[in-house]
């Protein structure tokens, strides 16, 4: 194992064990290096690597702290990787969405409050008459993300948000080339909303599956 990797593992072990809690300040560099049996250079490289993935927060003139370790923060690194996707992998992103989003939709149908449901309806109502493809796609992204947040699972919501960007261009492409795509999207969104509003998780799951599978199948044929 590379020296830097070993240093990363040792710091990770301190966090996982609870010795360093979210928000905690790391000991001084010299003290920590001696304690972990590391050179100061190896420790610096480890700290730099962990700061890039938002595990540590290096504050100039103050010290190095463990971040909040919230899923949204830690999954920013996934978003960075996802940005490098190739066009020939976009279908795979839709396949992952088809696995995750119906589950999130079913969960949302179980726990979303009346206020949450009103917010979801407001997103649907914000679509103008005869929307452009860009307006429809923007609304689609907001609608699905609100449901993901409504699932109550922050990890799931962050994963779904990370997977949205690579599919945006395909959604626009479909809107431009498939007749009636906007209307179909609105109808399916309404069906999903009604299932959530009436707290019918399995119906909500089914409509979400139909909705995402339709775009996936169109893309499969188009490719």
Overall description:
By secondary structure, this protein is mainly alpha-helical. The chain has two domains: 3-69, Winged helix-like DNA-binding domain superfamily/Winged helix DNA-binding domain (Arc Repressor Mutant, subunit A); 74-222, Four Helix Bundle (Hemerythrin (Met), subunit A) (Up-down Bundle), CATH 1.20.120.530. The chain has eleven helices and two strands; from the N terminus they run αααββαααααααα. The chain has a two-stranded antiparallel ribbon. The protein is elongated and about 65 Å long. 28% of the residues are buried. The model has no long low-confidence stretch (mean pLDDT 87).
How would you characterize the largest beta sheet?
A: 2 strands, antiparallel
- Which structural category fits the helices and strands? mainly alpha
Strand content: under 5%
The geometry reads as: elongated
| CATH structural architecture of the largest domain | Up-down Bundle
Extract low-pLDDT stretches.
Answer: none
Short description:
The protein is mainly alpha-helical. The chain is 72% helix and 4% strand. Helix 6 (90-111) crosses helix 8 (133-150).
Task: Give short descriptive properties of this protein.
2 domains; 223 residues; single chain; Arc Repressor Mutant, subunit A; GntR_C; Tscrpt_reg_HTH_GntR; mainly alpha; DNA binding; Four Helix Bundle (Hemerythrin (Met), subunit A); two-stranded antiparallel sheet; 72% helix; 4% strand; transcription regulation
């Amino acid at each position: 194992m590379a020296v830097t990797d070993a240093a990363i593992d040792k710091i990770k072990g301190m966090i996982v064990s609870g010795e360093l809690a979210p928000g905690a300040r790391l000991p001084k560099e010299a003290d920590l290096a001696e304690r972990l049996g590391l050179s100061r250079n190896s420790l610096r490289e480890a700290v730099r690597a962990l700061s890039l993935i938002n595990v540590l927060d290096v504050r100039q003139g103050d010290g190095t702290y463990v971040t909040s370790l919230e899923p949204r923060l830690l999954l920013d690194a996934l978003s960075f990787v996802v940005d490098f996707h190739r066009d020939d992998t976009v279908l795979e992103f839709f396949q992952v969405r088809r696995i995750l989003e119906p589950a999130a939709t079913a969960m949302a149908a179980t726990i979303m409050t009346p206020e949450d449901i009103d917010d979801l309806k407001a997103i649907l109502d914000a679509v103008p008459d005869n929307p452009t493809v860009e307006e429809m796609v923007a609304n689609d992204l907001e609608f699905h993300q609100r449901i993901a947040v409504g699932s109550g699972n922050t990890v799931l919501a962050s994963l779904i948000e990370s997977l949205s960007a690579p599919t945006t261009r395909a959604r626009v492409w479909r809107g431009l080339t498939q007749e009636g795509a906007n209307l179909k999207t609105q109808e399916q969104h309404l069906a999903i909303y009604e299932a959530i509003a009436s707290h019918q998780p399995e119906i909500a799951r089914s409509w979400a599956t139909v909705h995402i599978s339709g775009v996936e199948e169109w893309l499969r044929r188009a490719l």
